[in-house]
Amino acid sequence: MVSEGSIAGRNQRSREIFLHKPMSRDIISRVVGVAMGFNHMPLATALLRQMVRIQTRSVACLSSEEPPMVVSTSPRSRAFTLVELLVVIAIIGVLVSLLLPAVQQAREAARRAQCSNNLKQLGLAFHNYHDMHTMFPLGGPGGDPPSGHYLIGWPGRILPEIDRGALFDQLHELSANPFMELNPIRLDTAPHHGTDSMWSRPISTFICPSSTISPVNSKLTLQNADLHATLHYRGVAGTNDVDFVSTGGASRSYSTAGMLIPTGNVRASDVADGLTKTLMLGETSTDEGWNSTDQTGWGGIEPWTWGHYYYSDGWLQVDHKYVQFPIGYTGNFETNNTPFRSSHANGAQFVMGDGSVVYLSSSTDLTTLKAMATRANNEIVNSY
Q1: Statement: residue 380 has pLDDT above 60
Q2: Transmembrane region positions (predicted)?
């Protein structure tokens, strides 16, 4: 015979099991199935809702129960000692010293790639100009400039080919022949000296991202002269073994052996040495080695707006130059004979006659460099 106490105990245990043990899907499905077996959908729905309520309460009761107290047996935490702290700092310093050069090299590689892209655009612009005019642009205008003027060379002539047609049109709005009649230098006697905004607007295609020269010639300290956008690439006009400096007036002794020569109209068919072996443009994107007068005076101005070929004392030939010294030469040189050089490591980038871009090391033999600077001297250049 079963006592009432045992029955009550079993009911209590069943209740505890029901409340504390999550109801399985099997139980719920069986109960609902019985109701549905009698084809009583309202009853099945009511049973299901009631079971969900009970199950929700049981889960809430379980979650509200306070967890048992846990006695920690782990050792007490302690702070860093001075030695440990110094070791950590030393390790961090070593990691930074290892990572920083790698980051700098990656940045310089990106800048050099952008510089190469600029030169490729210029090479393409020269060939587009050749297709339109059946000749490459001249290295610099010829003849004596009118009083108070300084002429504009190839940079102004290829503006439409480098997506600067608006600036090209702006120049022609000032003059029918802006490259020969305008004076981009702001002087009291210069025409259009009040319209200098176009001169000081940097042209990204003319600028090497690694260059230490400002996008505008900020070192210029001459009175009445505005800041002008700079040019970091020069045309290759040939070779010379003498300094182009005269004590007075201007020298008319210049080479015509290169691709971008003063007053010249060189065609692709004139490059007998081969377009792939002849230099057309090169970097001069640093003024390292120049004296303070060259950097701050007329001789140190580097804008794309100066294009005349005067070789006189203190005047820098801007838009083209001759190969007289090795790449990156740091010795003595006259103003007009600044060597090709760049802010890249151990060399400079050049555009060949076919528009391709090459990187020439500062260790490139001067004889080889001079042979590459001439277009029809029958030199054989196998490697460089």
Answers
A1: yes
A2: 27-48, 79-103
Cα-Cα end-to-end distance for the chain: 112
Copy the structure tokens of residue 217: 């010639």
Q: What is the pLDDT of residues 335-359, one digit of tens each?
A: 556 788 898 988 999 999 999 999 9
Q: What is the strand order of the sheet 357-361 is part of? A: 320-323, 233-239, 279-283, 347-352, 357-361
Write the DSSP string, 349-369.
Answer: EEEETTS-EEEEETTS-HHHH
* Residue labelled with tokens 């004979």: 337
Q: b/e per residue, 297-331, with b = 16+ CB within 10 A? A: bbbbbbbbbbbbbbbebebbbbbbbbbbbbbbbee
- The two structure tokens encoding residue 88: 């950590």
Contact 138, 262 (CB under 8 A): yes
**Within a 13 Å sphere around the CA of 343, how many CA atoms are in the beta-carbon half?**
18
State whether the Cα torsion 74-80-83-86 is positive or negative: positive
pLDDT digits (tens, 9 = 90+) for 20-39: 444 444 555 555 555 455 44
pLDDT at 82: 85
DSSP calls for 275-299: GGGSEEEEEB---TT--HHHHHSGG
CA angle 239, 241, 245 (to 5 degrees): 100
Q: What single DSSP character describes residue 319?
A: S
How confident is the model at residue 170, as a pLDDT?
Answer: 83
Cα–Cα distance for residue pair 229/249, rounded to 1 Å: 27
Helix (H) or strand (E) holding 348: strand 347-352
Neighbours of 51 (CB within 10 A): 15
What are the φ/ψ torsions at residue 320 (nearest 5 degrees)? -150, 160
How far, in Å, CA of 122 to CA of 115, rounded? 11
Distance CA 98, CA 77 (A): 33
List Cβ neighbours of 79 (8 Å cut-off, separation of 6 or more).
Answer: none
Q: With contact defined as beta carbons under 8 Å apart, do 363 and 377 qualify? A: no
Domain residue limits, the chain: 9-57, 108-373
- C-beta neighbour count of 117 within 10 angstroms: 13
Element (H, E) at 49: helix 41-64
312 confidence band (pLDDT: 50, 70, 90): very low
What CA–CA distances, in Å, run from 133 to 56, 130, 256, 305, 356?
Answer: 87, 5, 20, 21, 21
Alpha carbons 19 and 58: distance in angstroms, whole number: 5
